Automatic annotation (TrEMBL), chain A:
Principal place of residence: membrane
Topological category with respect to the lipid bilayer: Multi-pass membrane protein
Alphabetical list of InterPro entries matching this protein: BPD_transp_1_N, MetI-like, MetI-like_sf
One example of a Gene Ontology biological process annotation: transmembrane transport
Family: Belongs to the binding-protein-dependent transport system permease family.
Transmembrane annotation, as ranges: 99-122, 134-155, 175-197, 238-261, 281-307
Protein's UniProt name: Peptide/nickel transport system permease protein
Gene Ontology, cellular component aspect: plasma membrane
Assigned keywords, A-Z: Cell membrane, Membrane, Transmembrane, Transmembrane helix, Transport
Residues of the ABC transmembrane type-1 domain: 95-300
Coiled-coil intervals, chain numbering: none
Subcellular localization, as worded in the UniProt entry: Cell membrane
UniProtKB/TrEMBL annotation, chain B:
Superkingdom: Bacteria
Keyword Transport belongs to the record: yes
TM spans (from-to): 39-57, 98-121, 141-169, 225-242, 262-284
Name of this chain's protein: Peptide/nickel transport system permease protein
Organism for this UniProt entry: Murinocardiopsis flavida
Gene Ontology biological process: transmembrane transport
Cross-referenced Pfam families: BPD_transp_1
Compartment(s) of residence: Cell membrane
From TrEMBL, chain C:
Name of the protein this chain belongs to: Peptide/nickel transport system ATP-binding protein
Xref: InterPro entries: AAA+_ATPase (IPR003593), ABC_transp_ATP-bind (IPR050319), ABC_transporter-like_ATP-bd (IPR003439), ABC_transporter-like_CS (IPR017871), Oligopep_ABC_C (IPR013563), P-loop_NTPase (IPR027417)
Organism encoding this protein: Murinocardiopsis flavida
A Pfam family reported for this protein in Swiss-Prot or TrEMBL: ABC_tran
GO BP terms: peptide transport; transmembrane transport
Amino acid sequence: MIRLIINRLFFGLVTLFAVSLIVFLATQALPGDAASAILGRDATPERLTALREQLNLGDPVAVQYGKWLLAALTLDFGTSFASGYPVAEYLAPRLSNSLWLMAFAAIIGTPLALALGSFSAMRRDRGVDHATSMVTLVLASLPEFVVGIVLILIFSTGWLSLFPPIFAGGSGAVWQYPGQLVLPVLTLVIAVSPPIIRMMRASMIEVLESEYVQQARLKGLPEKTVIRRHAAPNAIGPVAQVIALQLAWLAGGVVAIEYLFRFPGIGLALMDAIDARDIPLIQAVVLLIAGVYIVVNLLADIVGLAANPKVRVSAK
Amino acid sequence: MSAAPVKSESAATGPAEPAAKPRRAGLFRTAWGFGRTKVGVVLTAAIVLIALFGPYISPHTDTALVAEPYVTSADGSPFGTDYLGRDVFSRFLYGGQILLLLAASAALFGTLAGTVLGIVAGYRRGWLDELIMRTNDILLAFPQLIAALLIMSIIGPQAWLIVVIIGVTHMPRVARVIREATLRIVEQDFVKSAEAIGVPRWKIMVREILPNVTSPLLVELGLRLTYSIGIVAVLGFLGMGLQPPDADWGLMINENRLAITVQPWAVALPVAAVAVLTIGANLITDGLSRASIGIDRGVEK
Amino acid sequence: MSTSTTDDHRSDEAAALDIDGVTVIGRPSDVEIISGISLSVPRGRILGLVGESGSGKTTLGLALLAHCKRATEITAGSIRIGTTDLLAGTAAEVRALRGRGVAYIPQSPASALNPALRLRTQLREALFESDDAAARVREVLREVALPDDDAFLDRYPHQLSGGQQQRVAIAMAFIGRPDLIVLDEPTTGLDVTTQAHVLATIRSMTRTYGTAGVYISHDMAVVADLADEIAVMYQGEVVERGPGSRLLSAPEHPYTMQLLRAVPLLKTDGGDHPADEAKTPVLTVRGLEAGYGRTNVLKDIDIEVAPGDCVALLGESGSGKTTLSRSIVGLHHQFGGEVVFDGAQLAPSSYRRTAEQRRRVQYIFQNPYEALNPRKRVRDLILQPYAHLTGGKVADPDSVVATALERAALPAAYGERFPEQLSGGERQRVCIARAIATKPDLLICDEITSALDVSVQAEIVELLRNLQNDGMALLFVTHNIALVSNIAQYVAILNSGRIVEYGPVGTVLSDPQHEYTRALIADTPDFELTFADSPMHKSIRAAEKEHTAVEGGTKRPE
């Protein structure tokens, strides 16, 4: 098993490396003069020279990439064009805000989704099950910003002005403003849960139909034991992948949500950076999001391997 | 697996009956049997019709200034005006065409490319499979929206670019599914039977494998269409899709969202259109996927 | 070796199981899956329940525990275990009886044991009295001849062999000392030797505990070996029931007779005698070695097949028989040694062989449900390979299809059907038609009857024999020794990648030299068939010139 894990870790690293290469090539190794392409109409000779310097444009592309990667490994992504701050310093509080947002959504969404999925499976083909199926199907179709806007239309306009339509917290950690967090978190929960619910339901149904659950029932075990000991642990396995996928999706999904609610996280930072053509900032945020994605998937793989007795035991 | 009797032979143990069993209904007919598919078709058709023919019945052009900005209703403007004073209803009628075109092309392109890669990887295995799947893993590390934002932040928002990026990001996701389906088909003996008599590889892929992955293929197409609509819309919403003064549902939401409490129609109308469209497309997809599960397993439901 | 039976199925002993008029229907179609079944089994006796697929035997088996698969429902009848009527009881009462009053041994322990739980947990939870449970677990493990130490109890199901898993399932059933035990094809998928051990375990356990048993199987030989009484099921009804000896010697119902006739019987004496003159072999395999990666699965294989001969390749799962047959046809590439067909060495890959070579060697696959592309009509299934192998245009496609179907004993109208419209036997005939359309010289049959019911198997064997009479050479790969004695002239017995014995069928089976062959013959369950001879056996005997039929040690394995 250790070998399998090392194998996954290795591929994770390779992927991360490849991702960094793509980000670099896409942003910096443009044909022609990258500096004037980036600055466009704002190009003045001084700004061009400064930018060429910062991006090491004088060097061959491979050297540029090497310098950039080495710096990135020490979390030095250069200086933000727009704000003048070092990128790392600029992003740190925003990253923490985003992580809080994602953590709230994950902590609320995942257990809720697992419970709903199992509940639905155990009442298969009854009213509750059909209703859950329809609702999750509809919610799963909606792009996340549509969910957010519908929530705003319901809760922030007209008579029901319960929550503010945009995040207007002051300085300090975001969790100090729970009222303002409700809508963004709720939006993410709704966007993230439906696939988990559907997968949990499908997985649970498959396990409930399995021969070992039938055998457990034929042994005369009480239904509670059958579900808790025989069905649920085996049903969660296949869902872990989907949970990972959804949590990893959060990393990208926050962009539109943060933009919608003006939430001061990395997603909003990315949109601002794009507006300002702030290359170092864009590079850093995209790398961060891809990194989160890779790490979450890696963790899910490893947890999946460790939870499977076939892998755990046979590969001593 | 085991040498156990595989399937029910049902009544065939008796004397041979001359009458042929009727063929099982095809994917579309089975899918149509589900109520949700019908609802999906109706919803999708309604929005597609609006998008296609809206410009011809629109009271104003999409760029004409008709009244003060942000009024909730005016003469000839049942849903009021937007932030510049243009007619919301007219912009709504104009705003779906391009979105649909972009989403459909991206879904089609991504699904086709992904299918080719998936079948080749699943059938040929070996280093080619390894190469395709590893490349896929790398592409998969970019959430679709992030990939689109990254590229467009550098090159700038362009319609063709939207299609290419969304298509390319669909590709590895489709390839993964089709590869799985192909692996299941390749294990079956009719593929080996063709190999044993030396049928060329490309013919095996086209004649033996492709017809047997059409169910997952159609499901993927539906799913990718749903997602494409979402991404094109969200790009518009983030200001990275169509640019002003074009009418586009995503862009409309972006332009008018700050006044959502004052003039909700300017946001609600395009949001409703996108919502109904994605829900409709996904209902059809769900119908197809339920039907294909039944068909692939050879049982009802 | 047949089980002796006393003729007292209306015994005055208290019946452990007594069911009356049990009917199970499918929902929502309301079709009766089993209708009005009445049976009783006294304590300490075993009832064999025989039927082919679709007869409803598993549905009945589950109904004995008041369990229904999804979308089925017991609508009538009573099921009495001892003195309790299961169908009248509440859910809690039924549950209390399961495991203690009646226990179930599933067909496939690999999927019936929870993969994520240790054996200890799964055995312990089947036992309801809590005092000294650990001792009871160990005791019952010893009884089924499994280790009873902690290390074994700490294992997961996947760490056991198929035979061990089935014994764990048996132990789990007997642990609560039930009055009745339902066994649903518990030896399917096990090789003959393991099957013999498992059957012996079942026999001794029922004897020790005085438990009544219902043994469900499609395999007449196993049932004849084990059961005191046999009930034959057909289309949801028990068509005949009686003591084993009576049922086998004087079957009354036509279906029972048909079933018994179809069972291939192992002939260990005489057998088919190959022609005397030496024929030039069409296929010669010499010194073949094959493997996957670094593991070698076949060593020193020598085989010859002459026109008009059938050579059987007999081996259990994992013996390498499929690798060998696939090497010959060019689907398995990693082999060394000589494979000479009609004087020319064959290339490892079918793609390197000439079109003529590919046409002359045809292959039929084990599972007819997977060997036909479900998206093509039978006509195209036959024509496309034909066109490919004979080079392009087919002058008269209709007659090619019609001829091929006719030789496979199918009506020409079947050309327009899709595979899903055919039964398993018909599908296998289409596979045969596809293979013989190109008039091959060598036909390789890889376990082609193992996915089919016995009655269908008999028809396919008949068909193959006709092909052979037309001068085709056959390489018949199988795990079924009885089948070998009914179709082949020569047999090669494959064990762990080596041919341990090779020669004329009659010689090898009547006087086996290798201990593996002897064990194989001894472990194959047998029964005596003393009623009118079956057509399958008749025809082969008609081919024999000097030896008249003798109902010898008649055996049939699964």
